[in-house]
Amino acid sequence: xxxxxxxxxxxxxxxxxxxxxxxxxxxxxxxxxxxxxxxxxxxxxxxxxxxxxxxxxxxxxxxxxxxxxxxxxxxxxxxxxxxxxxxxxxxxxxxxxxxxxxxxxxxxxxxxxxxxxxxxxxxxxxxxxxxxxxxxxxxxxxxxxxxxxxxxxxxxxxxxxxxxxxxxxxxxxxxxxxxxxxxxxxxxxxxxxxxxxxxxxxxxxxxxxxxxxxxxxxxxxxxxxxxxxxxxxxxxxxxxxxx
Amino acid sequence: xxxxxxxxxxxxxxxxxxxxxxxxxxxxxxxxxxxxxxxxxxxxxxxxxxxxxxxxxxxxxxxxxxxxxxxxxxxxxxxxxxxxxxxxxxxxxxxxx
Lengths: 243, 97
What we know:
Chain A has one domain. Chain A has twelve helices and no strands. The longest helix of chain A is centred in the N-terminal third of the chain and has 44 residues. Chain A is globular, with a radius of gyration of 20 Å. Chain B has about 100 residues and is mainly α. Chain B is about 75% helix and about 0% strand. Chain B is built from four helices and no strands. The longest helix of chain B has 25 residues. The termini of chain B are far apart. At the A-B interface, helix 1, helix 2, helix 3, helix 4 and helix 5 of A face helix 1, helix 2, helix 3 and helix 4 of B.
């Protein structure tokens, strides 16, 4: 009897986490679908087959890098250059993963590994803004759902774009381009309301990023420096907040 | 040829993403490092938002800014992220009509 009750409680707890994960991850789907469809359309126009379009999303799973690669493939750039450019552009995920894995201490490696593989700007941002779930029982299911929704939306949207070809009117796809930025803002604002210093960290990082781009850094390195150096201000700014 | 590009891209993307999963377990960070890592999400959000948002519509940075302001206002009202997203999309759509 007791055992039953306990496992029943655990089940509803798991279910609750899955449900919360889906709700929390939904904005990523909203942001990813139009971007992924656009990627699929452009990749098709660059001469990639549907299989290649889907494979790239499945295996690389990095929006900005995929757009860049499609452009480079279209103009006939070599393999090595594309791969190096991808490394530079995606290196920011190393920094984000370090922060996220530190947040996930206590969660088993068998979970952290797929979460690391599925880390994108968006899945990281959404998860990092919900740090408390990691400490709850079955909290890992919450993160797993966010990551799964993001991944499936990206892959499905890419293939859809590859099948549909050019169907989305230009100004609609342009409007959709603001979706992920709006999501980042929507994630940041509540934290700033709770703690203004967090806003200061973000603004510093924005300025460093803009400065790096101004002096000619590639977008990839600019984001890495903005994040790492901007984040450094947290060493001092977040000092008093530690309990 | 494209398959080779995909495999190469996949490796150089995957490896930096998963190394921290193995490393963090073995390291015990000093408090200041933890504060640094704790600030990374906010710094990353900042760097991801600006200046990229200026280029949502080519050569029309003001449209990105207005879309961003709408998102800020909607999020400040305590609405769910989804509404900030929908509000910003609608704003940019109307401005580019």
